[in-house]
Amino acid sequence: MELKANKPIKVALDAMGGDFAPENELLGAISVFDDAKQSKNLEIVILGDEGKINNFLKDKNLSKVKYTIVPTTQVITMHDDPTESLKTKKDSSLYRGAEMAANGEVDAFVSAGNTGAMLATSTVLMRRIKGVSRPSIATFMPSDNETPTLLIDAGANVDCKPRFLYEFAVMGSVYTKQILGLKAPRIGLLSIGEEEKKGNDQVREAHQMIKEDKSLNFIGNVEGKDVMSGSCDVVVCDGFTGNVILKLAESFPKLVKSRFKQYADSSVKNKVLAASAMPALKSVFSSFNYENYGGVP
Amino acid sequence: MELKANKPIKVALDAMGGDFAPENELLGAISVFDDAKQSKNLEIVILGDEGKINNFLKDKNLSKVKYTIVPTTQVITMHDDPTESLKTKKDSSLYRGAEMAANGEVDAFVSAGNTGAMLATSTVLMRRIKGVSRPSIATFMPSDNETPTLLIDAGANVDCKPRFLYEFAVMGSVYTKQILGLKAPRIGLLSIGEEEKKGNDQVREAHQMIKEDKSLNFIGNVEGKDVMSGSCDVVVCDGFTGNVILKLAESFPKLVKSRFKQYADSSVKNKVLAASAMPALKSVFSSFNYENYGGVP
């Protein structure tokens, strides 16, 4: 996705977030500037242990990279309790980044750290869209369409009240308008049949709530087959189902590759046929690579 | 799958069930006898409108087909209410077939008719496995394994109590023992993480119930990625999630084919590469063809 902006965009980066911090975070940030078009209006604000960051950056070529460092003294680990760290780690890179985004000092904040802490901190500091009571995890799925399909919720809320599903519809609509530039994103509610009466209790109730909100372009219930077909722009579901969908879809290319290997191993002729299929197969499957769709808004 | 039996097997067939009845039902039944090995011990009991059945069969070559006809006078259509038809259509092919199976006059009964009526009639006439309070729909999924994976429930019970999930585990275990010949089918409970505490309320409760039943080979929670990986033999889930999984998985090959078409259309070179990939691709995708896995036990 290409960023479209008239004014420079400042993005805060939690350099202490991921499993290989700060190396991978910084390599990622630097690589963005390889693409002059993409980074034209971009500035990165790096948050974290100043010594470690400078140490890592000292032998890198940073001539094209626009960045500043904001030193922080604490780190939230994957084992920290989200609510606890919100209180006790206010000088962590995660907390400070979220705070800068909330204050408008930066336009966005990115972290690969503790998901729960990110969710809790963002919710407290940035608050939520009006009418939305629960944060959620959304993710883009490859689709048979020009733009990907947003799956929301992909795992934050496993036990969902109908109200939550309605709120996911609102958030998904706002998000795909902003990020994909869609004018009236088509919202589908995941169920087990297209008819209004189909589904479980939550889905039937949520259907009515989404339908009544005339600001949403609600196309009604959709089914499992619609998640990647491009028949809608936003698929609304509870976080349990969303997580299962995400992980199932991620596993499918692996199964296809394994079957290809079986096929190739079954005869010499098939080995040749499978080899000639590889360039096309690789190209097609790279379009399903979830690493291209990663990250959670 | 090959039938293994020491004594002749009698299968009752509802000739009036499907959308193209009785033609497709009878063609199907006849074609089984093309394979002498498969049909060695087989006898088909055809239930339905005797006139229509004889009319269709009169110009067919039936020299190898072992069959008898049981005439019935009523037909349950797709629009009939399941519970209502149970009371008012006792001389239907569906009711009579289920009755013969329940009485032991035949070893099995097959119908392509009204799923709800089939479910209701079978439940009333054949009753259930001890300890099982709800019938379910199960379906085999292609897996990265010698045997397919049973997905249960695939859509019969959308709002599931923990007890239902436990019962699906029992049914799935019995079924895969009988049909796939597995000695200790590996039962996985679908959740959003492998840890016992992960999942929604139902799943957490069901986990304990399944774990306590020592007759089951319970391998714990599994995730979306395990549905087709072959890491377990039975995937237990509620009917809502199961239905979504089934329809998502069915749609995946279509998306891959569509991407292949885009790839082929993007340049002359890619057209050639895509064409050379076709034989391998077709063979691999035929192994995902859900028509090979169709039918619901």
List the helices and strands and how they pair.
The structure is a homodimer of 297-residue chains.
Chain A: E1 9-14, H1 23-32, H2 36-39, E2 42-48, H3 50-57, E3 67-71, H4 82-88, H5 93-103, E4 108-110, H6 115-126, E5 138-141, E6 149-152, H7 162-180, E7 186-190, H8 201-212, E8 217-222, E9 234-236, H9 239-265, H10 268-286
Helix pairs in contact in A: 4-6, 5-6, 7-8, 9-10
Task: Provide a quick synopsis of the model.
The structure is a homodimer of 297-residue chains. The first copy, chain A, is of the alpha/beta class and 297 residues long.
Provide keyphrases for this structure.
297 residues, alpha/beta, 43% helix, five-stranded mixed beta sheet, 10 helices, four-stranded parallel beta sheet, homodimer
Your description of this structure?
In chain A, the strands form 2 sheets. Chain A has a 5-stranded mixed sheet, with helices on both faces. Chain A has a 4-stranded parallel sheet with strand order 3-2-1-4, sandwiched between helices. Chain A is globular and about 55 Å long. The first copy, chain A, has 297 residues and is an alpha/beta fold. The first copy, chain A, has helices spanning 23-32, 36-39, 50-57, 82-88, 93-103, 115-126, 162-180, 201-212, 239-265, 268-286; strands at residues 9-14, 42-48, 67-71, 108-110, 138-141, 149-152, 186-190, 217-222, 234-236.
